[in-house]
Design brief:
With about 375 residues, the protein is mostly beta strands. It has three helices and 32 strands. A five-stranded antiparallel sheet has the order 28-27-30-31-32, with no helix packed on it. Strands 9-10-12 form a three-stranded antiparallel sheet, with no helix packed on it. A three-stranded antiparallel sheet has the order 14-15-17, with no helix packed on it. The longest helix is centred in the first third of the chain and has 23 residues, at about 15-35. It is elongated. InterPro entries: Compl-Cell_Adhes-Reg (IPR050350), Sushi/SCR/CCP_sf (IPR035976), Sushi_2 (IPR015104), Sushi_SCR_CCP_dom (IPR000436). This is Beta-2-glycoprotein 1. One of its GO terms (molecular function) is heparin binding. Keywords: Disulfide bond, Glycoprotein, Heparin-binding, Repeat, Secreted, Signal, Sushi.
């Protein structure tokens, strides 16, 4: 009470001095009170947001923390308070990005991604021969779901294969309806006796089309000729259709070499014709031979000849060791070439001492 009066009296006596003092007191009080008691706007993690745009807060003021869109809170507390010393209370409040469910790859396709958290992206691709039905990308949204449903990979469709005139196609798999799909193949055939010209195999391609269609054409071969020492199953002097055949055989002891049947081919020619090969007369006497696994006198060889490509063995002598060994020789189209080591005995030597024959010596 006394101080108030004295101040007032001071004012009456020296008003200018009072006003200067009064202004100084007000400034000092305001500066010291505001600086020590207010909290500046807190520095928070980038994913945490404040509703207020205020930059200074009085002691006792509480701020509620929240997460930005696409993020979810963990730990706490979710509120901080400005203390009287101008500091905010401590918190472990954090915001982590929301996670979308792990996607499944599409059937016949693949997906590529680095993570499944908010704003992550998935890229979808399809295997060769399949096209993407749906979006090729998806983004993880703020609500924890993908922006688009997973696409499908659908097989490329070709329709039914084109059929050549007088032809057909046999598919590798069962085909239902009027659609075929990438990878399905088939084999073309022509109605007999027409011949197929072009690729007999076809497949539904990646661009949704079939390969070039082959053609069915008439093909004939001239009447075939007979072979020497042989006969044929059909001696008609006419043109033969594609894939018609004629069979051959040989007379007597002649042997057929090659295929016994020739076929009219796509190029209008016959397949390779066989031939008849002659037997080989065995013109040696007075010795033993090996023939068909049996050791026998040459005189016991009933036909006095062996057939083409048959083998008999004659005996030669090793003069150093005084022993014998068998040497095989083969009949080739009437020719039988004996080895140089073979010695045909004289009739006198054979009759007088058959034990001296090379075949009767000890085997080497």
């Amino acid at each position: 009470m006394d101080r108030t009066v004295s101040v007032f009296q001071l004012k009456m006596e020296d008003g200018a001095t009072f006003f200067l003092l009064s202004s100084l007191l007000l400034f000092t009080s305001g500066a010291s009170g505001d600086d020590n008691a207010t909290c500046v706007r807190p520095i928070l993690d980038a994913n945490i947001e404040l509703v207020s745009d205020q930059r200074h807060f009085s002691p006792g003021v509480a701020i509620a923390l929240s997460c930005k869109q696409g993020y979810t809170p963990v730990s706490g507390p979710r509120r901080i308070v400005c203390t009287i010393d101008g500091m905010w209370t401590k918190t472990r409040y954090m915001c982590i990005p929301k996670r979308c469910p792990y996607p499944d790859p599409p059937s016949n396709g693949e997906l590529h991604y680095e993570d499944t958290v908010y704003l992550s992206t998935i890229n979808y691709t399809c295997n060769e021969g399949y096209t993407l039905d749906g979006s090729s990308t998806a983004v993880c949204q703020a609500n924890g779901t993908w922006s688009t449903p997973a696409p499908e990979c659908k097989a490329v469709s070709c329709g039914l294969a084109p059929i050549p005139q007088f032809g057909m196609i046999i598919y590798d798999k069962m085909v239902r309806g009027n659609q075929t799909y990438f990878g399905i193949g088939g084999t073309y055939r022509c109605l007999p006796p027409l011949a197929l010209f072009g690729n007999p195999r076809a497949e539904c391609t990646i661009n949704g089309t079939w390969a070039e269609t082959p053609e069915c054409r008439v093909v004939t071969c001239p009447p075939p000729e007979n072979i020497e020492k042989g006969y044929m199953s059909n001696e008609d002097r006419r043109d033969f259709d594609f894939r018609e055949s004629v069979k051959y055989g040989c007379e007597g002891d002649y042997v057929l070499e090659g295929n016994m049947e020739i076929v009219c081919q796509q190029n209008g020619n016959w397949s390779e014709m066989p031939s008849c090969k002659a037997p080989c007369p065995v013109g040696i006497q007075g010795v033993k031979i090996q023939y068909r696994g049996e050791k026998m006198w040459i005189a016991d060889l009933k036909t006095k000849a062996i057939l083409h490509k048959e083998i008999l063995s004659v005996y030669c002598k090793d003069t150093v060791r005084n022993c014998s060994y068998a040497v095989p020789v083969q009949c080739l189209d009437g020719g039988l070439r004996l080895p140089e080591c073979f010695e045909e005995p004289s009739v006198i030597g054979y009759n007088s001492n058959s034990t001296s024959l090379h075949s009767e010596l000890q085997q080497c």
